[in-house]
Amino acid sequence: MLRETASQTAGPYVHIGLALAAAGNPTRDEEIWNEMARPEAEGEHIEVVGTVIDGNGDLVRDAFIEAWQADSNGEYQPEFDLEKPFNSFGRTATTFDHGSEWSLTTVKPGPVAHASGQSQAPHINLAIFARGINIQLQTRLYFDDEAEANAACPVLSRIESPVRRQTLIAKREEVDGKVRYRLDIRLQGEGETVFFDF
């Protein structure tokens, strides 16, 4: 049986082209990065942070994450423009510095319409790329202070196990007077994050 070659996995090479600062390379003037909301964007300004942990319980220090979310009114902004106060799309990465955390500066998304007619709870869609992963992993981040919306969410409620559901719930913290949510992503093993196939 033939083994995978380095070119058949997503990382660590993805940093060279898409996470220049994390790779220690000079950045471009117009970079899609982790600031999704500028200070003038409408809504509650938040920071989202976390780590990526492998099946051995070790930090993955070169994971790359793409985020896609609605604005504070629950609407996706399909056109990316660095001049806009808010963009629905952002990128971040874990690094060998700062405890190997990824972070996003954004606004808390509003509820999003679902095909069933129900509203989806506020959430951020995350795609995780890392060494050894051939196709990115898709997951979501929900907010622990949205318990009522989470309970009624047609997507979150499809996860039958309440324990497994908790792997998608970010915990609210306040740091230096700012609101921050923390979600650690576990790729395998005990407490593995729920991943979606869509």
UniProtKB/TrEMBL annotation:
Molecular function per GO: protocatechuate 3,4-dioxygenase activity
Residue ranges occupied by any Intradiol ring-cleavage dioxygenases domain in the UniProt entry: 29-189
The entry's keywords: Dioxygenase, Oxidoreductase
EC id: 1.13.11.3
Pfam family of the protein (one): Dioxygenase_C
Primary enzyme class: oxidoreductase
Source taxon at top rank: Bacteria
Family the UniProt entry places it in: Belongs to the intradiol ring-cleavage dioxygenase family.
Protein name according to UniProt: Protocatechuate 3,4-dioxygenase subunit alpha
Lineage, top ranks: Bacteria, Pseudomonadati, Pseudomonadota, Gammaproteobacteria, Oceanospirillales
